[in-house]
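Bumping my old thread because nobody answered last time. Still need a sequence for this structure:
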């Protein structure tokens, strides 16, 4: 399933953004905080704040999303597309046990689905189905959110800075889970400011600066021979610079 974004604009925050994520592609969207990355992702999912409106075109396998009804978007979220946010506690109900939350996508989209224990085992969390979110570490909660996102084997997974708040070891574990859990046909849009993460996960990269895509290409080409001055500044400030 292909995601096509054409001339997407959101107020003055995202301007004339166009890109494509093909079936099975792993694409990184990089840039500093405030560059418009998250607003781009929220536009795709139809989750922009009420005061903001997206214009242009966002199509998933040819279906226009910007003009889709909330009912249709709700059907697509979790069924065909899913998102992993930076802070898992915002995606988890503190009063609901983990097992019930993990199977919620099945109840909403296509019951009865896989058992919670099976989904939690797949992300390395056996025996946690009866736990509450506050009883888990940050890395464990992010695994739960990932299990929820992958529950219905979405065609498109969007990850918005999913490892930013985690230590290096846990970050590596989450990235490995994302890479190994996605089916070969599923597409990934991975949003981050961390170039090392992009280098380990993505085949292709889009560089965003002040609401615009300023550079794009294969991850190898962009990170080894950046053409735009902003990309060069990002690279100079990253740990990758030391290894070039």
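Sorry it took so long. Here it is:
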């Amino acid at each position: 399933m292909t995601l096509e974004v054409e001339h997407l604009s959101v107020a003055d925050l995202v301007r004339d953004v166009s890109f494509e994520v093909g079936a099975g592609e792993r694409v990184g969207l990089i840039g500093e905080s405030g560059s418009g990355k998250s607003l781009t992702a929220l536009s795709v999912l139809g989750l922009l704040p009420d005061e903001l409106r997206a214009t242009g075109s966002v199509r998933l396998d040819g279906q226009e999303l910007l003009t889709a009804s909330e009912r249709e978007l709700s059907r697509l979220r979790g069924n065909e597309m899913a998102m992993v946010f930076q802070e898992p506690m915002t995606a988890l109900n503190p009063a609901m046990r983990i097992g019930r939350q993990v199977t919620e996508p099945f109840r909403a989209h296509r019951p009865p689905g896989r058992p919670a224990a099976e989904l939690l085992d797949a992300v390395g969390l056996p025996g946690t189905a009866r736990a509450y979110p506050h009883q888990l570490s940050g890395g464990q909660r992010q695994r739960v959110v990932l299990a929820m996102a992958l529950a219905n084997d979405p065609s498109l997974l969007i990850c918005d800075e999913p490892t930013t708040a985690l230590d290096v070891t846990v970050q590596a574990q989450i990235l490995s889970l994302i890479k190994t859990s996605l089916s070969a046909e599923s597409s990934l849009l991975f949003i981050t400011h961390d170039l090392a993460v992009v280098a380990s996960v993505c085949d292709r990269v889009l560089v965003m600066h002040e609401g615009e895509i300023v550079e794009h290409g294969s991850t190898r080409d962009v990170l080894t021979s950046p053409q735009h001055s902003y990309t060069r500044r990002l690279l100079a400030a990253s740990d990758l610079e030391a290894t070039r």
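The mean pLDDT is 90. Let me know if any region looks off to you.
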